[in-house]
Write a structure and sequence with these properties.
Layout lengths: L1 H28 L18 E5 L4 E6 L5 E6 L8 E6 L2 E8 L2 E8 L5 E6 L11 E2 L5 E4 L4 E6 L2 E7 L9 E5 L5 E7 L4 E7 L5 E5 L7 E5 L3 E3 L9
């Protein structure tokens, strides 16, 4: 009798061990990221996006995923809070110093940086979502849902199975208001995801992002977020 109980206990223990290994393995492999756009570009996604990587370098990516290039590497102490795509040769970025938020102009051809001075601040209410060019707002819920608020109605356009890591957060809209750039903290690195306005099309633009500064440019449409009104060439 004791032998049978011992054997049963051993079998139960082994079964529990196997289940634990399977659960841990599946947990470790869980990846909520959309398919890589670099591996399979989506030419329906228009324009170019600039963002910072983990080395504080400004990268310019074709939004479809068809290409990416390093534009300029900032000092490790710069920590830009905002970045703006003016045109193919001009980028603006904001960083804080003793004057507060200061705007800088970067010429990507000459590598010259011009200090444009301190900028007025306009704090955004905590409950305000990321506003699109047409005025609707996008929110990211902690459970992975992406919600759009339009005319007083909240609509969930997609949901990511991010489990206990928290959902992605909106970074910017495309200038035409048809696409949304999201930032997601993976285990070891931040990623940038692109989703369509209706949530039907999704892709991972990069797995090497840093911060939440990014800007989207579409030729003939413009740039978003808008360039600061105080900026003059």
């Amino acid at each position: 009798m004791r032998t049978r109980l011992y054997v049963a206990a051993v079998i139960a223990g082994l079964a529990l061990l196997v289940i634990t290994v399977i659960v841990v393995a599946n947990y470790g492999r869980h990846d909520p990221s959309p398919p890589s756009l670099r591996d399979d570009p989506n030419l329906a996604i228009p324009g170019s996006i600039i963002f910072l990587d983990e080395k504080q370098c400004i990268l310019r990516a074709v939004a479809s995923g068809a290409g990416i290039e390093e534009v300029y590497c900032l000092s490790r102490n710069d920590y830009p809070s905002e970045i703006y795509f003016v045109d193919d040769t001009t980028i603006l970025f904001t960083r804080y110093d003793s004057r507060g938020p200061v705007l800088f102009e970067l010429n990507t051809q000459t590598r010259a940086i011009r200090d444009l001075g301190a900028q007025p601040t306009s704090p955004k209410p905590v409950e305000t979502g990321l506003v699109s060019p047409s005025g609707e707002e996008v929110f990211a819920e902690y459970d992975g849902r992406i919600v759009i608020l339009k005319d007083g109605t909240r609509t969930t356009i997609t949901e990511f199975d991010t489990r206990d890591y928290g959902g992605p957060s909106p970074v910017t809209w495309s200038p035409d208001g048809q696409w949304i750039l999201l930032r997601y903290w993976a285990r070891t690195h931040p990623e940038l995801w692109i989703i369509s306005r209706d949530g039907a099309t999704q892709g991972t633009l990069t797995t090497d992002a840093s911060g939440s500064a990014a800007s989207w440019y579409i030729e003939g449409v413009g740039t978003y977020p808008p360039i600061p009104e105080s900026y003059q060439r």
